[in-house]
């Protein structure tokens, strides 16, 4: 009888671990190899930096996110007045992105104040911060 109880406990614990693992929300991430910086322009003292980003949503549910880009070198170099820029959809008004399960390709426009030097530091994808929204 002792062996049956031991097997039952192992079976129950295994089931609980499987349930816990399947219920956990997995992290949304950017595929850096499939994402790229595509250009920038200056208009009316604003800098518009365009990036094409592939975001992976491993969760079953639709996720709502906001994106921020970190542009330290462009601020030091004199293109931007600030280092952290908000990401906008191509309509230049929407800052929330809805992600379906799987791969989501998004055109993101980071908008910042022009600091006076019309030269981009590099043509690399910036560090992008993902904030999940409720």
Task: Describe this structure as you would to a colleague.
With 134 residues, the protein is of the alpha+beta class. Helix content is 21%, strand content 43%. It is built from two helices and eight strands. The chain has helices at 2-23, 72-77; strands spanning 29-30, 36-43, 46-57, 63-70, 84-88, 97-99, 102-113, 127-133. Strands 1, 2, 3, 4, 5, 6, 7 and 8 form an eight-stranded antiparallel beta sheet that branches. A hairpin with a 2-residue loop joins strand 2 and strand 3 (46-57). It is elongated.
Number of helices: 2
Q: Could you give the order of the helices and strands?
A: HEEEEHEEEE
- Range of strand content: 35-45%
The helix-and-strand class reads alpha+beta
Report, as a whole number of angstroms, the end-to-end distance.
50 Å
Low-confidence stretches: none
Helicity level: 10-25%
**Rg (CA only):** 22 Å
Q: How many E strands?
A: 8
Average pLDDT: 90
Morphology call? elongated
What about the largest sheet? 8 strands, antiparallel
């Amino acid at each position: 009888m002792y062996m049956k109880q031991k097997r039952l406990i192992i079976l129950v614990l295994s089931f609980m671990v499987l349930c816990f693992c399947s219920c956990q929300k997995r992290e949304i991430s950017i595929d850096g190899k499939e994402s790229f910086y595509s250009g920038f322009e200056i208009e009316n003292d604003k800098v518009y930096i365009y990036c094409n980003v592939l975001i992976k949503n491993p969760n079953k549910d639709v996720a709502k996110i906001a994106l921020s880009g970190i542009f330290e070198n462009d601020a030091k170099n004199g293109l931007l007045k600030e280092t952290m820029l908000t990401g906008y959809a191509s309509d230049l008004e929407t800052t929330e992105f809805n992600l379906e399960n799987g791969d989501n390709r998004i055109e993101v426009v980071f908008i910042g104040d022009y600091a006076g030097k019309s030269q981009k530091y590099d043509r690399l994808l910036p560090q992008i911060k993902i904030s999940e929204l409720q």
